[in-house]
């Protein structure tokens, strides 16, 4: 296929060609960034929490008056919950992952350190916490029975860190046996490292999502503690949750259940990321609409040019051009326009990404999205131009000549 006639024709229709090029460039820039943002949202939504999500249920109750026997009532609650058929393990915890609040504490590596090294979340888990929550211990050990303290005692002798937090605090060295200082001048010795434990709120830089620490603390329901219940059969989680509410109401009738926190962990995750999910679908809809508009623009311009070039097509057919050659002519013409538009669109995509980075702290657009967007626009152009090109190839030479 000789390109000179095609380029000559395009130069005679600069305005129409420029409009198509700009439309393709704009679509390419938007689609590349939209694909990146959609993938970014999906990765954010599906990061592992480290918890046994398919089996966990959280149940939070609040006292409506002061209860001096809060610890004793909580122990009775735990025994009653463990007796429910289908419950594998139960523990207390101070905060639920993917809920509405988050406990944060500053970490120092020396007692005389003026400024903290960092601030991150602290989970307070009762006996059997690692098993109940399904946390995977990768180094060290679990808490010993004599290390657990009540919530009003800040002298917690040991701490377990996530692997990400341990690597951040003690880069290039094992954190086991090291000490950190969180609640005053008393050290907390690192006794174990767990693989993952997500922060309750997915806030801050993505690298901090998995930086959590656990302390051996018995939280009573009067302290705001939450019961984490591990259910053997995921299909029975809601039934167990309902039964647990009934059991606790008999033990402490002057308490109320927190509806927002008393859910399966999967439900809490779904609710937490609903805005991200809605944003991803919105980006999909905008990208699809933009591609449809671009395709319609290509079809409209190709149809217009076919109508304008009926005599030219007829002459080419009369001189021996086959239908396949006419078809390839228009497809090549579209490929040239799409290529110019895609090249401009790649530059525009990076410009838009720079703007989003400066306004919303988004990461840099990876190069891999540019060829994806280019292939998508090339394919769209070829599909869109196919029917007008086929109609042009079907023009009989005799009718084309008479139309002149």
Distance between the termini: 26 Å
Query: Radius of gyration in whole Å, from Cα?
Result: 32 Å
Main β-sheet description: 8 strands, mixed
Low-confidence stretches: none
**Global structural class:** alpha+beta
Percent of residues in β-strands: 15-25%
What is the arithmetic mean of pLDDT? 87
Descriptive labels:
single chain, 404 residues, alpha+beta, eight-stranded mixed β-sheet, 12 helices, 50% helix, elongated
Descriptive account of the structure:
With 404 residues, the chain is an alpha+beta fold. It is built from twelve helices and 13 strands. It has helices at residues 4-12, 14-45, 70-82, 129-133, 163-169, 237-251, 265-272, 274-308, 310-318, 323-360, 369-393, 397-403; strands spanning 56-63, 87-93, 104-107, 118-125, 137-140, 149-150, 158-162, 179-180, 188-194, 212-218, 226-231, 255-257, 263-264. Strands 3, 4, 5, 6, 7, 8, 9 and 10 form an eight-stranded mixed β-sheet that branches. Strands 1, 2, 11, 12 and 13 form a five-stranded antiparallel β-sheet that branches. Strand 8 and strand 9 (188-194) form a beta hairpin. Helix 2 crosses helix 10. The longest helix has 38 residues, at 323-360. The radius of gyration is 32 Å and the shape is elongated. The model has no long low-confidence stretch (mean pLDDT 87).
């Amino acid at each position: 296929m000789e390109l000179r006639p095609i380029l000559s024709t395009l130069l005679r229709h600069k305005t129409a060609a420029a409009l198509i090029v700009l439309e393709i460039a704009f679509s390419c820039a938007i689609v590349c960034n939209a694909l990146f943002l959609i993938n970014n949202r999906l990765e954010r939504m599906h990061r592992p929490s480290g918890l046994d999500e398919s089996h966990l249920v959280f149940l939070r109750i609040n006292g409506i008056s002061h209860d001096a026997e809060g610890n004793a009532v909580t122990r009775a609650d735990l025994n009653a919950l463990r007796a429910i058929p289908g419950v594998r393990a139960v523990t207390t915890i101070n905060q639920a992952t993917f809920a509405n609040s988050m406990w944060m504490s500053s970490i120092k590596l020396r007692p005389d350190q003026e400024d903290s090294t960092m601030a991150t979340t602290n989970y307070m888990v009762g006996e059997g916490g690692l098993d109940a929550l399904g946390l995977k211990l990768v180094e060290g050990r679990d808490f010993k029975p004599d290390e657990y303290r009540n919530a009003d005692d800040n002298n917690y002798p040991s701490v377990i860190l996530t692997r990400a937090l341990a690597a951040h605090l003690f880069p290039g060295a094992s954190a086991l046996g090291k000490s950190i200082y969180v609640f005053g001048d008393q050290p907390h010795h690192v006794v174990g490292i767990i693989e993952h434990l997500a922060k309750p709120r997915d806030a801050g830089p993505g690298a901090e999502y998995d930086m959590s620490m656990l302390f051996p603390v018995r939280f009573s329901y009067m302290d705001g503690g939450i019961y984490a219940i591990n259910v053997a059969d995921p299909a029975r989680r809601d039934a167990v949750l309902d039964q647990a509410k009934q059991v606790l109401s008999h033990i402490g009738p002057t308490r109320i259940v927190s509806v927002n926190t008393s859910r399966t962990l999967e439900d809490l995750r779904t609710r937490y990321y609903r805005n991200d999910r809605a944003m991803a679908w919105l980006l999909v809809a905008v990208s699809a609409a933009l591609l449809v508009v671009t395709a319609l623009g290509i079809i409209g311009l190709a149809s217009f040019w076919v109508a304008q070039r009926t005599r030219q097509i007829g002459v080419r057919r009369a001189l021996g051009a086959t239908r396949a050659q006419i078809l390839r002519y228009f497809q090549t013409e579209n490929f040239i326009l799409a290529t110019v538009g895609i090249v401009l669109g790649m530059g525009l995509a990076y410009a838009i990404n720079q703007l989003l980075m400066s306004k919303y702290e988004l990461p840099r657009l990876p190069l891999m999205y540019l060829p994806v967007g280019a292939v998508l626009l090339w394919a769209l152009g070829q599909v869109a131009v196919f029917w007008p090109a086929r109609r042009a190839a079907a023009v009989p030479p005799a009718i084309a000549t008479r139309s002149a």
